[in-house]
Amino acid sequence: MGHLLGYARVSTTDQQPQLQVDALKAAGCYRVFTETASGARADRPVLEQVLDQLRPGDTLVVWKLDRLGRSLRHLVDTITGLADRGVGFRSLQEAIDTTTPGGKLVFHLLPPWPSSNATSSGNARPPGWPRPELAAARAADRRL
Fold it and tell me: What CATH number has the domain bearing residue 29?
């Protein structure tokens, strides 16, 4: 069985990645890579580093889809590239896990949430879906 490697990204130095890091560690990530870079940037060296370190059987874990992809096209290309290499993908907020048959199906049926403003504000979660950020904050005894 491979490793879970986490990737956390914030857009500006004013933002703190700790919520993402806590959630990724709680999900069992062996290592968490953290980057401060706009999602629109094509050059994200930390993302390239984590992608390079992933081996067949490993799984890349992100807090939200929009932390990984610059656009829907970039997101699909990245996750498809991982699958081609035998690497899985998990998004905690959207409960997608491409290492399972159901997760592969969900990924292919997903609406383009990463480009949605509602997703960025955290309001696009269907009713009843879990909120991992709250569990991570409770575990760390913090308020959101």
Answer: 3.40.50.1390
